[in-house]
Amino acid sequence: MQYRFEYRRYCLPFRLPLRTSQGPWSEREGVLVRLTDEGGRAGYGEAAPIPWYGTETANEIETVCRGLGEQVTVERLTAVASHLGCLRHALAAALAPSSGHRDPPAPLGVAALLPAGRAALAAIPARAEAGFRIFKWKVGVETVADELGLLDDVCAALPGGGQLRLDANGAWDRRQAERWLDRCADRPVEHVEQPVPAEAADATDLLLGLAGDYPTPIALDESIAGEGDLERWLAAGWPGVYVVKPSLLANVAGALDALLEAKAAVVFSSALETALGARQALRAAFAWTGERRAVGFGVWPLFADARFDGLVTTPFIRWDDLERINPEAIWNALT
After folding, report:
1. Which of 293, 296, 230 is nearest to 258 (CA)?
2. Choice among 49-58, 95-104, 168-177, 265-274 with the minimum mean pLDDT
3. Angle between the 85-95 and 275-287 helix axes, to the nearest 10 degrees?
4. How far apart are CA 237 and CA 130, in angstroms?
5. d(Cα 113, Cα 63) in Å, to the nearest integer?
6. How far apart are CA 288 and CA 266, in angstroms?
7. Global pTM?
8. Cα dist. 182→21, 148, 154, 176, 306 in Å?
9. DSSP state, 38?
10. Active site residues per annotation
């Protein structure tokens, strides 16, 4: 079967820049794809790369899309280079548009994203009142001393039974990570995401050592974004959490099967994609049959143009909420 292939690149400003250890992130770049079969049925996908995570770039994706031409076959699409994981993900989604769910699965709990620094303190009360109990705080943005000084205030602001996820985005060296993990041991910290850089020469040994030395679980994030990363960490017997961003995975089903077989602890997370990509990523989270943890999709409103936002951020996401996301409307919004 032949498909008509179309793509549209986007560059969308965020409502507010996201402060991370890599600096401020002010806009989202990516590529939407559409495949229309001979019967006129269209499928959509989103390639939402994060190059500093180790993915391909939007420029690389656009170059390959331009070279595919207007008429493509499945064989042509599946021959896209394996290191272009985000593009392969988008093409697979467009080839297999999902239908409805006869028996909708149980709702997914959601973790609320907090701003970095002291601004987190002002954000917690309203989110707690809305019903959130898991909160993700970006750290590694200010000095270790300043953020450690805030940690007890942030913990004290949590609602009863609330827990904190700390996301360092690889900002710390070994000594700094040890200071944080030592401090977290008797505080309501669910896990610490990516305390040291994924690209460090000794990252594997360092992360495994930290995971074995401290009681607070460590979560891999950037460490499992590249080709073959997940397989390497599964082979190493990683004892902590895997933060899975489905939008960055070329073969989502295969990755989830491997994680399920390993009885891994998994947290599904947003890649700050548009609603089109978020819809597909959340379908993967709903399909997970292992232990469920609150998903990291409490990120909206995200874009300056609200047409590209996903769902209204609430403590739970229901399957029916995904059905209200219209991929064609998001595609058309880029015209």
Report:
1. 230
2. 95-104
3. 80
4. 38
5. 34
6. 9
7. 0.95
8. 21, 11, 17, 10, 41
9. T
10. 138, 245
User: What is the reported pLDDT for 319?
Assistant: 95
Domains and CATH numbers, the chain: 2-95 (3.30.390.10), 108-324 (3.20.20.120)
pLDDT surpasses 90 at 227: no
- Which two tokens mark 98? 């999902």
Task: Select from 154, 161, 107, 169 the least CA-distant residue to 134.
Answer: 161
**Are the beta carbons of 221 and 266 closer than 8 angstroms?**
no
Residues 306-320 have a mean pLDDT of 95
Does residue 73 have a pLDDT over 80?
Answer: yes
Q: What is the DSSP string of 79-107?
A: TS-TT-HHHHHHHHHHHS-----SSPPPP
% of residues, the chain, pLDDT over 70: 99
Q: Which residue has the tokens 């874009």?
A: 303
User: Residues 315, 132: contact at Cβ < 8 Å?
Assistant: yes
Are 69 and 4 in contact by the 8 Å Cβ rule? The answer is no
